[in-house]
Amino acid sequence: MDRFSWQEFGESAQEWEAALAALTPARAAAVQQSAVYGAIAQAAGRRVARLELRCDGRRIGLVQIIARARLWLISRGPVFAPGLSLALQRKALRGLARRAGLVLATPDAPIAGFGVIPLVTPRHQAIWDLAPDPEVLRAGLAGKWRNRLRTAERGGLILDREPDLEDVLAHDRTQQAARGYRALPAQFTRNWARIAPEDLLALRVETGDGQRIAAGVFLIHGAGASYHIGWSGAEGRAHGAHNLMLWQAALALRARGVRQLDLGAVDGEAGAGRMRFKLGTGARAEPLGATCWVLPG
């Protein structure tokens, strides 16, 4: 099992998504490993490569890597077959560095040991399993979270698709400035809507008199989805609009076949309130690997 090699994945974007789903049927790959994410990077002038790890004719790993000058970045990857030992994962990662050159990687699960030098402390992601029945999902909500959802449902709020993506992006820019954080640029969201409009779910919440008080954008990638943008005004927070939006988004995504919703980081810098909100859904806080410099093996 220790004689393997990385090879170019020479098939289509659709076949890439199918290969990811077949490799890890119990867990969806992160958005950074999706074909649309790679296509957006290519549209921005980046070099993108998709590789597969094979052993004795069997595919045991997949990775999408994106270049910045001479540096290759691996975000939330590689995606390995279940059961592959950490020692073999590390060996495969170092073999990838031997093939590609200078590699910085943030694996989707911890990988450590000789040849993998940590540079940035690992963080945790809130991963919400949407596979259970809706009744089970609702029972899994934290008590206060469920109470706020019930209040929003009884408060006459209206949930609908959001046709004005630019309005959501404008509110998101204002929110980023107010809270002092940075996210993917607005052009990334515009490009996703252009390349894969069917894989972008934008929702808004309004009061009975038509006042928009919250909105959100979700990106769909295979059997997974990511909570990409969430905006809420003071009135939205007071009325539990975000609880209503996220709950209804989860049901809509589940009906489409999405099994897993990535709610984003839940470490201290994300803010205690936002961390409680995400984990209040019943999501698990799952550790990522540290961002690391990978030495060729």
Automatic annotation (TrEMBL):
Q: Which residues form a coiled coil?
A: none
- What positions does the domain BioF2-like acetyltransferase occupy? 146-268
Q: Which Pfam family is an annotated match for this chain, by its short name?
A: Acetyltransf_6
PANTHER family named among the record's database cross-references: LIPID II:GLYCINE GLYCYLTRANSFERASE
- Example of a GO biological process term: cell wall organization
UniProt superkingdom: Bacteria
Molecular functions (GO terms): aminoacyltransferase activity
Q: Which InterPro entries match?
A: Acyl_CoA_acyltransferase, BioF2-like_GNAT_dom, FEMABX, PG_Glycine_Bridge_Synth
Provide the alphabetized UniProt keywords: Acyltransferase, Cell shape, Cell wall biogenesis/degradation, Peptidoglycan synthesis, Transferase
Protein name per UniProt = BioF2-like acetyltransferase domain-containing protein
Family to which the UniProt record says this protein belongs: Belongs to the FemABX family.
